[in-house]
Amino acid sequence: MPDRELLYFLVCDFARVEDKTRKGIFIGAYGTNILAQGFPAALPSLAFVACFKGLAPKEKLGVTIKIPGVDEHLSTTQNVDTDQRSA
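^ that's the sequence the OP posted. Answer follows.
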């Protein structure tokens, strides 16, 4: 298995990849912190984008998102088809 390297990780309001050009479109990118007026806060849409170097074709990739001070976390595992990535 090749060495994997995380090239970037982005949190934004909306993300998609154009079908023909494979260009990424990211709207409402957050910086270091996500600020809210108060808690609990509702974010109608939140997208997580990660770009890796060195993924094997059809590799299974797991992601867990943890929030400091919160016991519950979000976790998912997906098969990544490297043929669908932009070059």
